[in-house]
Amino acid sequence: GGSGALSLATNWNPDGTTFNAQTSTVIFDAPVTSTMTGSTTFYGLRAITSGTTLYFTPGTTQYVTNIVEFRDLGLRSKTDNATWYFDYSGSSQTLVGLNVQDSNADGGTLMDADTDSTDSGNNTNWDFLTNETGERYWVSSTAKNWSDTSAWALTSNGTSGASVPASNHTVVFD
């Protein structure tokens, strides 16, 4: 725990130990693959080594309370067609160039992957942005981060939870 960064070039396996996230960010920077074993709560979680794959043990849940950043990698279950869980409740997510399969993120905020990301199937509570155009309405009555999906809707005064506006959207502040 603490407030620094923990960089890993291997697998995550707490194996009965207690990890105290506090305000630390865990960074996966393995050259090929890493596997996350067991359920863990992270303050920040990053994996940004292009072309790698981060595997998750089926049936486990990774909780992230603040920052998630995944760039140019695969997110997969260790076993095909077996669900892994991701519960994100933070305020800053960057999901770019991903290939995601077998993920259930229904316990937290909608995961907004960009237009370069691929939905490889069996994913819940993920939005793989397409090149669709349209409008996004800011519907929050309180201060929020731009990247917070709870501030956006697809219609004026609509239900929040829409994807964050992309460059091809018109933004309307209600």
Total of helices:
0
Report how far apart the termini are.
41 Å
* Helix percentage range: under 10%
**Main structural class:** mainly beta
**Oligomeric state, counting identical vs distinct chains:** single chain
Strand count, sense and closure of the main sheet? 7 strands, parallel
Number of strands: 17
Strand content: 35-45%
Rg measurement, Å: 16 Å
What's the order of the H and E elements?
EEEEEEEEEEEEEEEEE
The poorly predicted ranges are none
Shape label: globular
**Overall mean confidence score, pLDDT:** 85
Description:
The chain has 174 residues and is mainly β. The chain contains no helices and 17 strands. It has strands spanning 5-8, 25-28, 33-36, 40-47, 53-56, 61-71, 74-77, 84-88, 92-96, 99-100, 103-104, 111-113, 118-119, 126-128, 134-138, 152-153, 169-173. Strands 1, 2, 4, 6, 8, 9 and 11 form a 7-stranded parallel beta sheet that branches. It has a 5-stranded parallel beta sheet with strand order 3-5-7-10-13, with no helix packed on it. The mean pLDDT is 85.
Short description:
The chain has 174 residues and is mainly β.
Task: List its salient traits.
174 residues; mainly beta; 7-stranded parallel beta sheet; 5-stranded parallel beta sheet; 17 strands; globular
List the helices and strands and how they pair.
Blueprint: E1 5-8, E2 25-28, E3 33-36, E4 40-47, E5 53-56, E6 61-71, E7 74-77, E8 84-88, E9 92-96, E10 99-100, E11 103-104, E12 111-113, E13 118-119, E14 126-128, E15 134-138, E16 152-153, E17 169-173
